[in-house]
Amino acid sequence: MGGLPCFCPTCGNFMIRPDKHRCSPRWEIKYPDWLGDETKFVHAHDAGEAGERFARVTDSYGDYEFANGHEAEVQIRRAATDTEEPGPWETYILSAEPSVEYHARQK
Ligand SMILES: [Zn+2]
């Protein structure tokens, strides 16, 4: 059997069939303003999703700068693997916008 559905401890995605799960690719992110020379790694389907995940996580560690309208320029590339060289760095702008939630409650 393939084990019970759960979140992957490596990439964080939900696994309906853990035995069939393959982690999404790993992306490397440079954000000199905040990380200096350090880089961070994020699992995501593409570079844009990696940037979104990175923004979501870093925003909650900071003062929600993105949620408050701050934008940041970062560099993202496909991380090297055992068999592949890293991809070329590409520039992405991270930002966020608040979403509106509508409610109706009976009085
Ligand atoms: Zn995974």
Would you kindly provide a written description of the structure presented here, covering whatever features stand out?
The chain has 107 residues and is of the alpha+beta class. The chain has a domain at 25-94. It contains 2 helices and 6 strands, in the order βββαβαββ. The protein has helices spanning 32-35, 47-61, and strands at residues 6-7, 14-15, 26-30, 39-43, 72-78, 90-94. The strands form 2 sheets. A 4-stranded antiparallel sheet has the order 4-3-5-6. Strands 1-2 form a two-stranded antiparallel sheet. The site of zinc ion (ZN) has 6 residues, from loops.
Summarize the structure.
The protein contains 2 helices and 6 strands; from the N terminus they run E-E-E-H-E-H-E-E.
Q: What labels would you give this structure?
A:
binds zinc ion; 2 helices; alpha+beta; 107 residues; 6 strands; 24% strand
Mean pLDDT: 91
Helical segment count: 2
Distance between the termini: 51 Å
By secondary-structure content and strand pairing, the structural class works out as: alpha+beta
How would a textbook summarize the main sheet? 4 strands, antiparallel
Strand-residue fraction? 15-25%
Secondary-structure element order, N to C: EEEHEHEE
Distinct ligands:
zinc ion
Number of strand elements: 6
Q: Taking strands numbered 1, 2, ... along the chain, how are they ordered across the largest sheet?
A: 4-3-5-6
Low-confidence stretches: none
Give the % helix. 10-25%
Q: Mind telling me the C-alpha Rg?
A: 17 Å
User: How would you describe the shape?
Assistant: flat
